[in-house]
Automatic annotation (TrEMBL):
The keyword Iron does not apply. Belongs to the dihydroorotate dehydrogenase family. Type 2 subfamily. This is Dihydroorotate dehydrogenase (quinone), mitochondrial. Its cofactor is FMN. SUPFAM superfamilies: FMN-linked oxidoreductases.
Amino acid sequence: MHDVLIGVNIGRNKTTNTAVEQDYTLGIEQFGCLADYLVINISSPNTPGLRQLQNENELKNLLTSVRRSCDKVACDNQLKQKPLILLKVAPDLDEDEIKSISSIVRQPNTYIDGLIVSNTTVARMETLQSQHRNETGGLSGRPLKDKALETLRSFRRHTQGQIPIIGVGGIETADDVFERIKAGASLVQIYTGLTYSGPPLINKLNRQFATMMKQQNIKHINDLVGKDDRR
Ligand SMILES: Cc1cc2nc3c(=O)[nH]c(=O)nc-3n(C[C@H](O)[C@H](O)[C@H](O)COP(=O)(O)O)c2cc1C
Protein backbone atom coordinates (compact mmCIF):
# COMPACT_ATOMS: atom_id res chain seq x y z
CA MET A 1 0.00 0.00 0.00
CA HIS A 2 1.18 3.53 -0.70
CA ASP A 3 -0.24 6.88 0.26
CA VAL A 4 0.67 8.77 -2.89
CA LEU A 5 -0.80 8.26 -6.33
CA ILE A 6 1.49 6.49 -8.76
CA GLY A 7 1.12 7.06 -12.48
CA VAL A 8 3.06 5.13 -15.12
CA ASN A 9 3.48 6.58 -18.60
CA ILE A 10 3.75 4.06 -21.44
CA GLY A 11 4.92 4.95 -24.95
CA ARG A 12 6.08 2.89 -27.88
CA ASN A 13 9.73 2.24 -28.66
CA LYS A 14 11.38 3.46 -31.84
CA THR A 15 12.39 0.02 -33.10
CA THR A 16 9.34 -2.10 -32.20
CA ASN A 17 7.38 -3.59 -35.10
CA THR A 18 4.17 -4.35 -33.25
CA ALA A 19 3.98 -1.56 -30.69
CA VAL A 20 0.49 -2.39 -29.43
CA GLU A 21 1.37 -5.95 -28.47
CA GLN A 22 5.00 -5.48 -27.52
CA ASP A 23 5.10 -2.10 -25.83
CA TYR A 24 1.66 -1.09 -24.57
CA THR A 25 0.31 -4.53 -23.69
CA LEU A 26 3.54 -5.59 -22.01
CA GLY A 27 3.74 -2.26 -20.20
CA ILE A 28 0.23 -2.71 -18.81
CA GLU A 29 0.98 -6.27 -17.73
CA GLN A 30 4.17 -5.19 -15.96
CA PHE A 31 2.98 -1.97 -14.33
CA GLY A 32 -0.78 -2.40 -14.01
CA CYS A 33 -0.51 -3.68 -10.47
CA LEU A 34 1.79 -0.91 -9.29
CA ALA A 35 0.05 2.03 -10.86
CA ASP A 36 -3.03 3.93 -9.78
CA TYR A 37 -3.24 5.26 -13.31
CA LEU A 38 -1.58 4.38 -16.60
CA VAL A 39 -0.91 7.01 -19.23
CA ILE A 40 -1.16 5.78 -22.78
CA ASN A 41 1.25 8.14 -24.45
CA ILE A 42 0.53 8.55 -28.17
CA SER A 43 1.86 12.07 -28.47
CA SER A 44 5.63 12.28 -27.87
CA PRO A 45 7.07 13.86 -31.02
CA ASN A 46 10.54 12.46 -30.48
CA THR A 47 9.76 8.79 -31.19
CA PRO A 48 9.10 7.98 -34.85
CA GLY A 49 5.68 6.36 -35.39
CA LEU A 50 4.33 7.22 -31.96
CA ARG A 51 2.01 10.06 -32.96
CA GLN A 52 0.54 7.96 -35.79
CA LEU A 53 -1.29 6.06 -33.07
CA GLN A 54 -3.61 9.07 -32.85
CA ASN A 55 -5.06 8.11 -36.27
CA GLU A 56 -8.60 6.75 -36.07
CA ASN A 57 -8.05 3.08 -36.90
CA GLU A 58 -4.77 2.76 -35.06
CA LEU A 59 -6.26 4.41 -31.99
CA LYS A 60 -9.30 2.14 -31.98
CA ASN A 61 -7.06 -0.90 -32.24
CA LEU A 62 -4.72 0.38 -29.51
CA LEU A 63 -7.46 1.28 -27.06
CA THR A 64 -9.36 -1.97 -27.60
CA SER A 65 -6.20 -3.83 -26.73
CA VAL A 66 -5.41 -1.53 -23.78
CA ARG A 67 -8.89 -2.09 -22.33
CA ARG A 68 -8.55 -5.85 -22.71
CA SER A 69 -5.10 -5.91 -21.07
CA CYS A 70 -6.24 -3.65 -18.26
CA ASP A 71 -9.25 -5.84 -17.51
CA LYS A 72 -6.88 -8.79 -17.19
CA VAL A 73 -4.59 -7.11 -14.66
CA ALA A 74 -4.69 -9.42 -11.67
CA CYS A 75 -3.14 -8.17 -8.49
CA ASP A 76 -2.07 -10.27 -5.51
CA ASN A 77 -3.48 -7.61 -3.26
CA GLN A 78 -7.24 -7.85 -3.80
CA LEU A 79 -7.66 -4.33 -2.40
CA LYS A 80 -5.83 -2.79 -5.31
CA GLN A 81 -8.22 -1.40 -7.89
CA LYS A 82 -7.48 -1.74 -11.55
CA PRO A 83 -5.51 1.25 -12.82
CA LEU A 84 -7.32 4.10 -14.50
CA ILE A 85 -6.49 4.64 -18.15
CA LEU A 86 -5.55 8.13 -19.30
CA LEU A 87 -4.75 9.04 -22.90
CA LYS A 88 -2.10 11.69 -23.51
CA VAL A 89 -2.57 13.70 -26.70
CA ALA A 90 -0.63 16.24 -28.75
CA PRO A 91 -1.35 19.96 -29.07
CA ASP A 92 -0.83 19.78 -32.84
CA LEU A 93 -4.08 17.98 -33.71
CA ASP A 94 -6.58 19.68 -36.01
CA GLU A 95 -10.29 20.01 -35.21
CA ASP A 96 -11.28 16.85 -37.16
CA GLU A 97 -8.65 14.77 -35.39
CA ILE A 98 -9.80 16.06 -32.00
CA LYS A 99 -13.39 15.27 -32.94
CA SER A 100 -12.49 11.73 -33.99
CA ILE A 101 -10.44 11.01 -30.83
CA SER A 102 -13.19 12.50 -28.66
CA SER A 103 -15.71 10.12 -30.21
CA ILE A 104 -13.51 7.00 -29.91
CA VAL A 105 -12.69 7.54 -26.23
CA ARG A 106 -16.41 7.53 -25.33
CA GLN A 107 -17.28 4.24 -27.00
CA PRO A 108 -17.80 1.04 -24.98
CA ASN A 109 -14.75 -0.96 -26.12
CA THR A 110 -12.35 1.93 -26.31
CA TYR A 111 -13.40 4.17 -23.43
CA ILE A 112 -10.84 5.84 -21.21
CA ASP A 113 -10.99 7.40 -17.75
CA GLY A 114 -9.39 10.68 -18.70
CA LEU A 115 -7.38 12.73 -21.17
CA ILE A 116 -4.06 14.47 -20.59
CA VAL A 117 -3.87 17.57 -22.77
CA SER A 118 -1.14 18.03 -23.85
CA ASN A 119 2.30 16.79 -24.73
CA THR A 120 4.98 19.02 -26.29
CA THR A 121 4.49 20.73 -29.67
CA VAL A 122 6.32 20.43 -32.98
CA ALA A 123 5.14 23.94 -33.91
CA ARG A 124 7.59 26.85 -33.82
CA MET A 125 5.90 30.14 -32.95
CA GLU A 126 7.08 33.31 -34.69
CA THR A 127 7.72 34.92 -31.34
CA LEU A 128 10.48 32.43 -30.44
CA GLN A 129 13.83 34.18 -30.12
CA SER A 130 16.11 31.37 -28.99
CA GLN A 131 18.99 30.36 -31.24
CA HIS A 132 17.61 26.82 -30.86
CA ARG A 133 14.20 27.66 -32.31
CA ASN A 134 14.73 25.70 -35.52
CA GLU A 135 15.82 22.49 -33.83
CA THR A 136 13.48 19.53 -34.29
CA GLY A 137 11.72 17.88 -31.34
CA GLY A 138 9.07 18.74 -28.80
CA LEU A 139 8.80 22.26 -27.43
CA SER A 140 7.50 22.70 -23.87
CA GLY A 141 6.96 25.49 -21.36
CA ARG A 142 5.72 29.05 -21.84
CA PRO A 143 5.59 29.05 -25.68
CA LEU A 144 3.28 26.02 -25.53
CA LYS A 145 0.80 27.58 -23.10
CA ASP A 146 -1.78 29.05 -25.51
CA LYS A 147 -1.72 26.04 -27.83
CA ALA A 148 -2.18 23.57 -24.95
CA LEU A 149 -5.02 25.69 -23.55
CA GLU A 150 -6.82 25.89 -26.92
CA THR A 151 -6.41 22.14 -27.47
CA LEU A 152 -7.92 21.53 -24.04
CA ARG A 153 -10.88 23.80 -24.85
CA SER A 154 -11.43 21.89 -28.06
CA PHE A 155 -11.34 18.48 -26.35
CA ARG A 156 -13.70 19.76 -23.67
CA ARG A 157 -16.13 20.90 -26.37
CA HIS A 158 -15.98 17.69 -28.40
CA THR A 159 -16.25 15.39 -25.37
CA GLN A 160 -19.09 17.56 -24.02
CA GLY A 161 -17.37 17.61 -20.66
CA GLN A 162 -17.96 13.87 -20.22
CA ILE A 163 -14.29 12.89 -19.89
CA PRO A 164 -12.12 14.33 -17.11
CA ILE A 165 -9.15 16.27 -18.48
CA ILE A 166 -5.74 16.87 -16.93
CA GLY A 167 -4.33 20.15 -18.23
CA VAL A 168 -0.61 20.47 -18.90
CA GLY A 169 1.61 22.70 -21.00
CA GLY A 170 3.21 26.00 -20.02
CA ILE A 171 1.63 26.23 -16.58
CA GLU A 172 3.78 28.42 -14.31
CA THR A 173 1.50 30.56 -12.15
CA ALA A 174 -1.68 30.30 -10.07
CA ASP A 175 -3.40 32.37 -12.78
CA ASP A 176 -2.42 29.69 -15.31
CA VAL A 177 -3.87 26.98 -13.07
CA PHE A 178 -7.09 28.93 -12.57
CA GLU A 179 -7.46 29.56 -16.31
CA ARG A 180 -6.84 25.89 -17.19
CA ILE A 181 -9.41 24.65 -14.67
CA LYS A 182 -11.98 27.19 -15.83
CA ALA A 183 -11.38 25.93 -19.38
CA GLY A 184 -12.23 22.39 -18.27
CA ALA A 185 -9.28 20.74 -16.52
CA SER A 186 -10.03 18.79 -13.35
CA LEU A 187 -6.33 18.59 -12.47
CA VAL A 188 -3.15 20.14 -13.79
CA GLN A 189 0.42 18.94 -14.23
CA ILE A 190 3.59 21.01 -14.34
CA TYR A 191 6.81 19.87 -15.95
CA THR A 192 8.96 22.67 -17.39
CA GLY A 193 7.86 25.17 -14.71
CA LEU A 194 9.31 22.82 -12.10
CA THR A 195 12.71 22.78 -13.75
CA TYR A 196 12.85 26.57 -13.50
CA SER A 197 11.30 27.10 -10.05
CA GLY A 198 11.91 23.77 -8.28
CA PRO A 199 9.62 21.82 -5.91
CA PRO A 200 8.62 24.90 -3.76
CA LEU A 201 6.53 26.01 -6.76
CA ILE A 202 3.84 23.47 -5.91
CA ASN A 203 3.09 24.77 -2.41
CA LYS A 204 3.27 28.35 -3.64
CA LEU A 205 0.72 27.69 -6.41
CA ASN A 206 -1.56 25.74 -4.05
CA ARG A 207 -1.55 28.63 -1.56
CA GLN A 208 -2.13 31.29 -4.22
CA PHE A 209 -4.83 29.20 -5.89
CA ALA A 210 -6.66 28.73 -2.56
CA THR A 211 -6.58 32.51 -2.04
CA MET A 212 -8.01 33.11 -5.52
CA MET A 213 -10.84 30.64 -4.83
CA LYS A 214 -11.66 32.42 -1.58
CA GLN A 215 -11.54 35.88 -3.17
CA GLN A 216 -13.96 34.77 -5.88
CA ASN A 217 -16.16 32.99 -3.35
CA ILE A 218 -15.79 29.59 -5.07
CA LYS A 219 -16.46 26.90 -2.48
CA HIS A 220 -15.43 23.76 -4.36
CA ILE A 221 -13.11 23.06 -7.27
CA ASN A 222 -16.01 21.41 -9.14
CA ASP A 223 -17.70 24.80 -9.28
CA LEU A 224 -14.74 26.08 -11.28
CA VAL A 225 -14.12 23.15 -13.67
CA GLY A 226 -15.35 24.18 -17.13
CA LYS A 227 -16.86 27.43 -15.85
CA ASP A 228 -15.98 29.06 -19.19
CA ASP A 229 -18.64 26.82 -20.83
CA ARG A 230 -21.36 28.37 -18.70
CA ARG A 231 -20.69 31.95 -19.79
C1 LIG B 1 12.59 16.66 -21.56
C2 LIG B 1 11.15 16.25 -21.63
C3 LIG B 1 10.82 14.90 -21.60
C4 LIG B 1 9.48 14.49 -21.68
N1 LIG B 1 9.17 13.14 -21.67
C5 LIG B 1 7.88 12.75 -21.76
C6 LIG B 1 7.54 11.37 -21.76
O1 LIG B 1 8.39 10.48 -21.67
N2 LIG B 1 6.23 11.04 -21.86
C7 LIG B 1 5.25 11.99 -21.96
O2 LIG B 1 4.06 11.64 -22.04
N3 LIG B 1 5.54 13.30 -21.95
C8 LIG B 1 6.83 13.70 -21.85
N4 LIG B 1 7.14 15.05 -21.85
C9 LIG B 1 6.04 16.05 -21.96
C10 LIG B 1 5.67 16.63 -20.58
O3 LIG B 1 5.21 15.61 -19.72
C11 LIG B 1 4.58 17.70 -20.72
O4 LIG B 1 3.41 17.11 -21.26
C12 LIG B 1 5.01 18.84 -21.65
O5 LIG B 1 6.38 19.18 -21.43
C13 LIG B 1 4.15 20.10 -21.45
O6 LIG B 1 4.20 20.54 -20.12
P1 LIG B 1 5.19 21.71 -19.60
O7 LIG B 1 5.03 22.88 -20.53
O8 LIG B 1 4.79 21.98 -18.19
O9 LIG B 1 6.58 21.14 -19.69
C14 LIG B 1 8.46 15.47 -21.78
C15 LIG B 1 8.80 16.84 -21.79
C16 LIG B 1 10.13 17.23 -21.75
C17 LIG B 1 10.46 18.72 -21.79
